[in-house]
Amino acid sequence: MAALEEEFTLSSVSDQKPLGSWSVKQGQIITCPAVCNFQTGEYVVVHDNKVLRIWNNEDVNLDKVFKATLSAEVYRILSVQGTEPLVLFKEGAVRGLEALLADPQQKIETVISDEEVIKWTKFFVVFRHPVLIFITEKHGNYFAYVQMFNSRILTKYTLLLGQDENSVIKSFTASVDRKFISLMSLSSDGCIYETLIPIRPADPEKNQSLVKSLLLKAVVSGNARNGVALTALDQDHVAVLGSPLAASKECLSVWNIKFQTLQTSKELPQGTSGQLWYYGEHLFMLHGKSLTVIPYKCEVSSLAGALGKLKHSQDPGTHVVSHFVNWETPQGCGLGFQNSEQSRRILRRRKIEVSLQPEVPPSKQLLSTIMKDSEKHIEVEVRKFLALKQTPDFHTVIGDTVTGLLERCKAEPSFYPRNCLMQLIQTHVLSYSLCPDLMEIALKKKDVQLLQLCLQQFPDIPESVTCACLKIFLSIGDDSLQETDVNMESVFDYSINSVHDEKMEEQTEILQNGFNPEEDKCNNCDQELNKKPQDETKESTSCPVVQKRAALLNAILHSAYSETFLLPHLKDIPAQHITLFLKYLYFLYLKCSENATMTLPGIHPPTLNQIMDWICLLLDANFTVVVMMPEAKRLLINLYKLVKSQISVYSELNKIEVSFRELQKLNQEKNNRGLYSIEVLELF
């Protein structure tokens, strides 16, 4: 598939019409946002870090416009009205655009230190003179550089993080007055801090330290995973993009920092990219896949205005949008813009509609949805509900939701929302006694994935249901399992090479857990084992079931049970399936015997006790049937030798225990030893 070309689009905000579009060649990467040179009306961009291009509205093909290859990599091109654009290089040097174009290959000096990276920059005009500020970061430390172009002075400041030295700054913004640059930062703790940087420092050559102060507390969630953004609207107002709570959706909020009040806020259901700009009394942000433009003009900050009690008076001919945010996103090119009067009518109508319709709780909305909507829509609504902050009735709502879904499954055989059911099971709220029909329906559907999840999550599954799951896990075909998504955490890699096979077989014949079968007096069993063909040798050292079936059987091994209630149901399982399960358990035992810890690799594998308990259970329930099957004869002989070897091992351990006990008595009797002694102990 051909690579997509990166392009620029020029649009008119007022009428939402695209005015032009240009693209770079495939393979070329735009590394610096395009800006407008207000002095010439041209556009400037950098691609591939060093290639600068300039064009105007009449140009069609970017390949034919002015091009200059620079000697160093560019971080940003900055442009404001009233002065020429500036070019900020990644190493911290700054050049005027005209001076750079006069000699594109001029040497660019290094201003910042090694491993120091520019994170943010802003361009101001103060007293008709350009002022540039950029922030760098190195090993968690932040630095501010202020460049005054009327005096060619570059001042460096160290930004002290204060008490929370582990915090990370997510976004910067700044505003300027006659004496200070107010640098505001949105930290990883969700708070906004302010650092005042003097425009005219007392000692420009000295590296000074600046302490930040808390400006607004907890404006966004400290655990927000998506991008957050902060931009200054004027000296008293900031706009914040982010989630106010950990489980809530992203919002655009406007705060009055002077009076610490929230002016307006609205959820953004389609999400954002964490990018926010303010220019010409318009907020620009990416909402979903569209660029949304929001007209917003700040009032003169006052206490009445901050509390929303200021009365507005204006002439009929004026066009002012005061503390109004247009949350409509029209179709088309994705630019949202309406005039003030239309917006007020929409907002007024929306308030009336909301006041007439009482708000329905999310839990009731969910219960209403599951009774009539499609499986896909129900899945979306369940995901939304689970993402909300848990309420006191959360457990009850989950139980009612599962009950409603199961009742609909019984009424409509074609309806089976397995994805929704799996989401609800994973809340760790449900149990078998709360929704017994859940596993019954899954057994009818032979949904082994859902049954496995229930066995892992439910602590109170009856033994009859556990055996019903075991029957399905043993009887389902390998082809059907290959198409099923099963949790494989409890299964390790069963692939064994031929060399390992030979060693493992030699171990089972010669040395089993410290016992030599050649010393066994059961000569008939030894003769039977010595006559076994080569293919059966391979069977004993390779897993008798596929990995997905092994994962399902492991879920059975981990399930809770009572032996008294389980044994009668095990007798109902066909003999060939019992034999297959016994072969798998014997294989797991051999795997445990390979290491000194007698454990299996993997995440949450079956334990040796679980393996031995289930071998005993299966033999107790089905021995008279299995012993009559010719294909199970060799397996039973192996299990017999396994038990006999264990008895011999425990017998030898008991003898050693007696010897050690006698040694302990001897040591207790001989307490008076010199500095050096030689003792000879004889064991009989």
Can you describe what's shown?
- The chain is an alpha+beta fold.
- The chain has 19 helices and 25 strands.
- Strands 10-11-12-13-17 form a five-stranded mixed β-sheet, with no helix packed on it. Strands 3-4-5-6 form a four-stranded antiparallel β-sheet, with no helix packed on it. A four-stranded antiparallel β-sheet has the order 14-15-16-18, with no helix packed on it.
- A hairpin with a 4-residue loop joins strand 15 (180-187) and strand 16 (192-198).
- It is elongated.
Question: How do the strands and helices of this protein lay out in sequence?
Answer:
Layout (H helix, E strand, L loop, with lengths): L6 E6 L4 E7 L6 E8 L4 E6 L3 E5 L10 E4 L4 E5 L7 E4 L4 E3 H6 L14 E10 L2 E10 L2 E8 L4 E8 L8 E8 L3 E8 L4 E7 L9 E4 L1 E4 L12 E4 L4 E6 L8 E6 L4 E7 L4 E8 L2 E6 L2 E6 L7 H4 L33 H17 L5 H8 L5 H13 L6 H18 L6 H8 L10 H10 L2 H10 L5 H13 L2 H5 L15 H13 L12 H8 L3 H8 L5 H12 L4 H8 L4 H18 L15 H19 L6 H37 L15
